Fold:
Amino acid sequence: MNESFDELLPATRRALHHRIAVAQADGRAPSLVGAVIREGRTVWTGSRGRTGEREPDGDTQYRIGSITKTFTAVLVLRLRDEGLLDLSDPLERHLPGTAVDGVTIAQLLAHTSGIAAESPGPWWERTPGALRPELADVLGEAPLLHPPGLLHHYSNPGYTLLGALVERLRGRPWDAVLRQEVLEPLGMERTSVDAEAPHADGWAVHPWADVLLPEPLEDLGLMGPAGTLWSTSDDLGRWAHFLAEGDDRVLCAASVAGMRTPAAPPADGSWDAGYGLGLQLMRKDGRTLAGHTGSLPGFLAAAWLSPEDGLAAVVLANTTSGVPVGALAADLVSLTAAHEPLIPPAWTPSAGPAPDPELLALTGSWYWGPTPFVLRLDRGSGLELAALTGTSRASRFRPSADGTWTGLDGYYRGEVLRVVRGDDGEVSHLDLGSFVFTRRPYDAAAPVPGGVDPDGWR
Structure:
């Protein structure tokens, strides 16, 4: 029997409301909005506090700070997918004269460029962008603090460079490209460079008294691609769903999945967090979340998505500090998943033509030495290889025109899988990055590296 679960249960809604109520009260935020998105649809929005004379809702704009970087990253990956650049290209190839020789586009996306975290001079988030009219003003005289590619070091000026790269290759301002290529196709009408009513004002809250101080609102100029955008929880819900599923009008599913693939561990060595291509990554309650946090004076923001749960969550607040919005948004995902776990779709046989019999014959058990693996067909006529014991070295493979297969993820990402046949035409073994997989453990009839003891098992 089919059932509809379009709305959250009352107990789930109360748990979510309680969580944001505690966070707003403990963090003393003038206002806070939270939202949960399930399979692309906002199923819960809750708020606390006020913005002026009204209660905030899913259409109230807040400044989202570094969540802006996820938009800039998508614009760069669109250029990559169009063949206008390669992520391994040095930035200087496309944007000469930046004084960051050797830094690649991928390193800028993943914050492994070695460029300083902030722009020199007065605090750029609270001063006019006119103080930094040229890229040289953003970077300073010695922008590289670390050798490119050595470690993860978060860099706001790095994303200024990516914004300038977009402008150079498109021949238009970054915000105009963003509006035409991303926001309009996705229907994100309430995401903008400048505040549009209804919006929250930014405040600092005194640490030892219940009083407020208005924060300045500045045009960030060249630093805009690193953190200038305003948005709503409704719009960010659409954005989170896009980052989970992709949209061929903007960026395909494979490319957004690449954004969620770890490209750099954090600087502190903690493997509970990391960074992909424009996306922060975090392990929380046994799941991997992708998204980003953001802050500017007067505002805090976070958006996390969990593709395996079909869930995303957004938190927006108009305070400079005090609310751990990243942890709060992650908790909204965990609470919803715990109360209402994803119900998988009913299994159905694969649609379309029957698989190639020779391909079907490859499925089943294979052995790397004595370690059992299983090879199976996925619904897209690809292959999936996984160990039967433990969780290591699982990968998916796509077919190549020359009859080989290329790893898409996991340990064998980018590695080539070859089906090797004997003189009789029968499959002898699989060769995967020099590893030999055989139908029986250490098959003496296969070319196992180092050979197999002639006396066999004993």
Notes: The chain has two domains: 10-339, 357-438. The radius of gyration is 25 Å. The longest helix spans residues 10-27. The chain is about 25% helix and 20% strand.
